[in-house]
Write a structure and sequence with these properties.
Elements (H helix, E strand, L loop, with lengths): L1 H13 L8 H19 L4 H5 L5 H25 L3 H15 L7
Helix pairs in contact: 1-4, 2-4
Length: 105
């Protein structure tokens, strides 16, 4: 994860994009990319959405949008000093306490 964040930072630095990589701009870009991912699935039935990766062209689009979402999320974490894996681990811990397994399913 850290290597990917470094690579993203180096990519932006080589293009002098750091002034634009403010938390506000990164969150906005993240939202746009997430919306582009939603757009692919928007009118699919649940069954069609489960098979989305079986079509090579659609699979490529989904994969690219997932990469874009992850890239902006990692850049946001870098700018804000958030360790994304630690944040996720802590959130899962909180959710396990908040939503305990009751034995009923």
């Amino acid at each position: 994860m850290a290597a990917l964040q470094r690579r993203l930072a180096e990519f932006a630095a080589a293009r002098d994009w750091q002034p634009f990589h403010t938390p506000k701009n990164l969150v906005s870009a993240l939202s746009v990319e997430a919306s582009e991912l939603v757009e692919i699935f928007q009118w699919l039935t649940p069954e069609e959405s489960a098979r989305v990766m079986s079509d090579p062209e659609t699979a490529h689009r989904v994969t690219d949008e997932v990469a874009d979402v992850l890239a902006y999320l990692l850049q946001l974490c870098e700018v804000l000093g958030i360790d994304p894996l630690s944040a996720l681990d802590a959130k899962i811990d909180r959710n396990e306490r908040r939503f305990p397994v009751t034995g009923e399913r």
